[in-house]
Amino acid sequence: MNDLGETLWRLRERAGLSQEALAEKLGVTRQTVSNWENGRATPDAHKLAKLCEVLGVGADELLGLPARPSAPKRKWLIAAAAALLLAAVAAVLLAVFSGGGEMTSTVILTPAFLWSALAAVAAVCGAVCLVLFFRKK
Question: N or C: which end of the chain has fewer CB within 10 A?
């Protein structure tokens, strides 16, 4: 068995499919699947794509390639850091510019109110980004 054949056999078994059942889903014969698994033949690009779909894996896993680092995860972390930095800046500006007046029941669009609203929104955005970054798939 070659690496692709071994991986194909392992993934087929994990999916609970017989060679015949997999062959039927791919529109090939059972013998073709057997030849792939034993290294006597190699599926073409179209069949590789269909194999990935049927077995629920990416091409990297099917072909035995090392997994690539996830770029979207890095983007979430950068977004979270930016949002939390914005919240910190807004909080500092709030402390500097707050007039310390009385609390009223009406909302007045003062600089202090705007900075505190910006700080709250940025903190929530940062927290959401961190949750999305650390969630399990």
Answer: C
